[in-house]
Amino acid sequence: MERMPTVDDVALAASVSRQTVSNVINSPEIVRESTRLRVQEVIDRLGYRPHASARRLRTRTSSTIGLRLDPLRDGISGVVLDRFVHKLAEQADERGLRVMIFTANGPEDELAHIRRLRDGSDIDAFILIATFHGDPRISWLVDNDVPFVSFGRPWGSTIDDPQHRWVDVDGRAGVRDTVTHLRASGAQRVAYIGWPSPSGTGDERRAGWEEACGFDAADRARYQVVTVDGVDEGADSARRLMAVDAPPDAIVCASDSLALGARLALDAAGFLDTPVVGFDNTPVSAAMGLSSIDQPLDEVVAAALHLLFGPDGGIVRPNPKRNEEPTNRLLVPRLVERRSSHRALGETTGA
Amino acid sequence: MERMPTVDDVALAASVSRQTVSNVINSPEIVRESTRLRVQEVIDRLGYRPHASARRLRTRTSSTIGLRLDPLRDGISGVVLDRFVHKLAEQADERGLRVMIFTANGPEDELAHIRRLRDGSDIDAFILIATFHGDPRISWLVDNDVPFVSFGRPWGSTIDDPQHRWVDVDGRAGVRDTVTHLRASGAQRVAYIGWPSPSGTGDERRAGWEEACGFDAADRARYQVVTVDGVDEGADSARRLMAVDAPPDAIVCASDSLALGARLALDAAGFLDTPVVGFDNTPVSAAMGLSSIDQPLDEVVAAALHLLFGPDGGIVRPNPKRNEEPTNRLLVPRLVERRSSHRALGETTGA
Q1: B317 exposed, middle or buried (CB, 10 Å; 0-12, 13-18, 19+)?
Q2: Choosing a second label site near B58 at 20 to 30 A (CA), which of A144, A285, B227, B329?
């Protein structure tokens, strides 16, 4: 096993004291520039790395972001957060940051984890996912001055509190733009299948449909089905919609699970040309050729890291007194249009 | 912000010296039992936590497992590794271990990451995924005495090298058991749709079908389609199989993507009663009511952590001289049988 170079090796090779090597690493501003360059050159050449725990103890930083991984969900849409984790790992890596993941049984347990990781200086900042009304994590993190950003807006509380930095995807705009696009493409009656209220995410998506559908109150009730998430539920809802007088000629759904069910039910009933649009652009929608509204996770992660670490990598602490920089970002998703491959599967059957 | 208790607070409250507090934490075996209990009680009551970086510097351990997260894959089957990450985070948490994730562009880049994390004492052990023939990570980790376990057997090299601890799922047994079960349930001609050779995983799964299908060489060629992965590819393959004389009355596939395509093609052609079985039991197979062979990821993770950390939590270093404990585990997957909900979607259509 190759021996790792030590601080003594660097000091010897650069003809300086151990203390100077330490200063170059920890307090470069107090070292003469020519010396600093010489020592740094030796550090690079030898591949010397100060012991990370020692460095962290001195600097009290860990270059590590903590993220709670939700318990595994069986649904098709659960993969969105997994995609978020992948993107986060990639972009954190580009910034020289690491990602530590942990699991928790609910917000109180997550808070216990956050507290332990904070106490141990293991984590510089946290990313919260799945924020909700009265979220106890938010108030604790703010009160304890722990840097964090949430993927999800502060439902039910002050949306512009600079202490709570957040990034979210504007589901309302995504659905509104999609409905507008479908109507511009010739659809007369765009129906909606969505989740029961109250649901922060679900209510926003439904509001986007209501704003763009062009229906009066009676037709908004007629062309809308409220259901829990699921493929079977999407199929049942689509059948109900197609049974009304003047059935819809396009359906937008709050999720890809609902859209998949709706698509299969419409195909089985012969409505092959009725567009169905899902939400989240999951692998299954891509595999099945379903149109879907895509959350721009690359941008979400970039915005979250920018809010936390700024352009230059140092932790940015929110300053409630001076709110010159925006402390949140609401990103607009985009429609990914596909022609159903399922339909093609049925059409070209040669068996 | 509530002040964190310090070692002085503990020493004062327990009427002992700072050194004694430190000994209780770092060398409890040298402290008198009654003193140890009294100090520990104060530590617990005050919620004192020694600074993690300081503790790690002393012990040179991090209680952290490193895992490379593969770049995001668009396929339906990519989620298996995400499920693995969730399970790992959960079981690591139960053992007081943390999981650090990172990404890499290929094995050489991963090795550079591993080297950096090892040099910084950031990671106690690594879990490798997606092992392959001539994997350079394996030899480096063995040569450098870095503890690791792979999810995936050492393809193409000595499978029983005690230096390479591994856990894998026996795809051959999974497919063999499934084909045997289908034949026992009345299927006369069980066909197979699988990936091109060479593919460690794919070749094993195909071998399981070959062992149990009961066909002679000519029929093994007739009732088998080789294709790259994908829903469309599964549909095309199923159509080819159903076009032969005496078409198959059951189809087993190397993946859920292939199985989903095959199921849709069979449904479109009216073969509603022909069972189709996929592999990986992904969310889409559950949502669509497809039968699938499930990888026992809970057991995989438990076995991996057991091989690395043993029953009592300390890193177990493989000892090539004394190989009393097994250093690998091959786990058998199980068939999850479902009746296609897709079929039900078509049948009950009321539109």
Answers
A1: exposed
A2: A144
